[in-house]
């Protein structure tokens, strides 16, 4: 954790006592470097920052752990308990340097076009489907998420749904609420000795596998890659084999072109008669119309859905036919558990996510560290120690094209570069360098040279300065 203190203007001596971002630029275009690759955006002018000049917008009731962490650093934090309508979002995003969201807010290319100063996006959830990652990278905007912090919460929800479906708890509870006492064991079963088939075997699925085995279930899984099984779980050759052999099928895959409608009519017919389907991954993975047909025919005994192809933008009575045609039908099916995308919504998970993503944003703003970024090369340099004075940290985000790094180093070569590292991820390259023993005149000259360079080649330039009083 750093102690926020003001940073002096470029024209004065550079002796700040904590890491603080100082300026960032967007480049123009140049025919020699495939200018069509990067969108035409206004250039960001160099401007020294006080820590308090950093503006952060947190939406969708992000856990207070993140809010407190960022406020303690001295940043301006604006907090909202819900998502914003597109018009409001576009207006709010114009001047902020960081935005934090969960799953409801959609940061498309058209929305990001209005973000003049945006440095980073924090997705306080597992996925990043709600952000145009490629476009954000082209705009020099790093995206951070928390792919593992709520794994246990999702796994526990799934194992609970396995039990509830097997015992038809949802229907029994509804009957009791309506005043009906119906004490019967028909179609109610134990899960001991049953087979759980898991599609996709990442962190959530592996924890689910352990929980299921501890309750006496056998576990099969299929994944695109060959994996080492945990416990007695066994990987099968393909999806067809898993569907035909499982009493319960649980989905744990990302949203991709390959997984869209992964479970359709043919796959549902391949499942065992009287089996159950659980989806806590992504809504587009299951064809809901086909699922309704399989439930009405009696081929499936039950289903549990926590995610949907389209979801309401806000809390309230919005899960109805206005959202989609299939809503009314699926609400009327027996032994179907419907939950509002709450797989990772536990206090423990949200606190862990808030700390993880909030910490990643803090490290990126203060020192340019991209460890954990979903759309940038992972680059970091060791921290400066308290004995180091008059230091400057430069981060240069640019197209991964021959010659760009040489042009940058032609400028940096006139200075005392103590540490430097560069890495690339697809078409994006990220360079970080620490320069020591620089006075105010040298800093001003360096900024001028880098600004000129940023107008000559398509790139994104984000310098940060660190100094002798830094504490980490």
Automatic annotation (TrEMBL):
Gene3D superfamilies: 3.30.70.260, NAD(P)-binding Rossmann-like Domain. Coiled coil: none annotated. Residues 56-374 form the D-isomer specific 2-hydroxyacid dehydrogenase catalytic domain. Pathway: Amino-acid biosynthesis. One of its GO terms (molecular function) is phosphoglycerate dehydrogenase activity. Pfam families: 2-Hacid_dh, 2-Hacid_dh_C. Keywords: NAD, Oxidoreductase. Residues 160-343 form the D-isomer specific 2-hydroxyacid dehydrogenase NAD-binding domain. InterPro entries: ACT-like_dom_sf, D-iso_2-hydroxyacid_DH_PdxB, D-isomer_2_OHA_DH_cat_dom, D-isomer_DH_CS, D-isomer_DH_NAD-bd, NAD(P)-bd_dom_sf. One of its GO terms (biological process) is L-serine biosynthetic process. The keyword Metal-binding does not apply. Belongs to the D-isomer specific 2-hydroxyacid dehydrogenase family. This is (Perigord truffle) hypothetical protein. It comes from Tuber melanosporum (strain Mel28).
């Amino acid at each position: 954790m750093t102690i926020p203190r003001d940073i002096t203007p470029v024209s004065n001596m550079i002796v700040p006592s904590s890491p603080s971002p100082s300026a960032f630029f967007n480049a123009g275009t140049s025919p020699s470097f495939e200018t069509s690759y990067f969108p035409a955006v206004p250039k960001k002018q160099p401007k020294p920052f006080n820590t308090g000049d950093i503006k952060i917008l947190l939406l969708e009731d992000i856990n207070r752990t993140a809010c407190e962490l960022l406020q303690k650093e001295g940043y301006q934090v604006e907090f909202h308990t819900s998502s914003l309508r597109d018009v409001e979002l576009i207006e709010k995003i114009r001047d902020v340097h960081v935005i934090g969201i969960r799953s409801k807010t959609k940061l498309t290319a058209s929305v990001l076009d209005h973000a003049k100063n945006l440095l980073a996006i924090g997705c306080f959830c597992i996925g990043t489907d709600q952000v145009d990652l490629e476009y954000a990278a082209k705009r020099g905007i790093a995206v951070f998420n928390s792919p593992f912090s709520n794994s246990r919460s999702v796994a526990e929800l799934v194992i609970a749904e396995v039990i509830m479906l097997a015992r038809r708890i949802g229907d029994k509870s509804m009957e009791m609420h309506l005043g009906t006492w119906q004490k019967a064991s028909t179609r109610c079963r134990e899960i001991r000795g049953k087979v759980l088939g898991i599609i996709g075997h990442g962190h959530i699925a592996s924890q689910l596998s352990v929980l299921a085995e501890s309750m006496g279930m056998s576990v099969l899984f299929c994944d695109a890659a060959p994996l080492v099984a945990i416990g007695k779980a066994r990987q099968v050759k393909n999806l067809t084999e898993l569907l035909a052999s499982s009493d319960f099928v649980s989905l744990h895959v990302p949203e991709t072109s390959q997984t869209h409608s992964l479970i359709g009519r043919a796959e549902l017919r391949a499942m065992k008669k009287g089996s159950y389907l659980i989806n806590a991954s992504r809504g587009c993975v299951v064809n809901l119309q086909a699922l309704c047909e399989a439930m009405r025919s009696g081929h499936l005994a039950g289903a549990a859905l926590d995610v949907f192809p389209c979801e309401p933008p806000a809390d309230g009575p919005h899960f109805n036919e206005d959202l989609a045609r299939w809503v009314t039908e699926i609400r009327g099916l027996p032994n179907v558990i419907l939950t509002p995308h709450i797989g990772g919504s536990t206090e423990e998970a949200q606190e862990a996510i808030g700390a993880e993503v909030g910490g990643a944003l803090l490290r990126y703003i203060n020192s340019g560290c991209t460890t954990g970024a979903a759309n940038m090369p992972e680059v970091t340099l060791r921290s400066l120690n308290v004995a180091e004075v008059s230091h400057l940290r430069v981060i240069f985000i640019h197209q991964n094209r021959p010659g760009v790094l040489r042009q940058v180093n032609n400028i940096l070569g006139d200075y005392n570069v103590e540490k430097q590292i560069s890495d690339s991820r697809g078409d994006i390259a990220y360079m970080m360098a620490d320069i020591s023993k620089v006075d105010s005149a040298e800093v001003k000259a360096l900024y001028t040279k880098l600004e000129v360079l940023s107008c000559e080649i398509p790139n994104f330039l984000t310098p940060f300065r660190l100094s002798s009083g830094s504490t980490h």
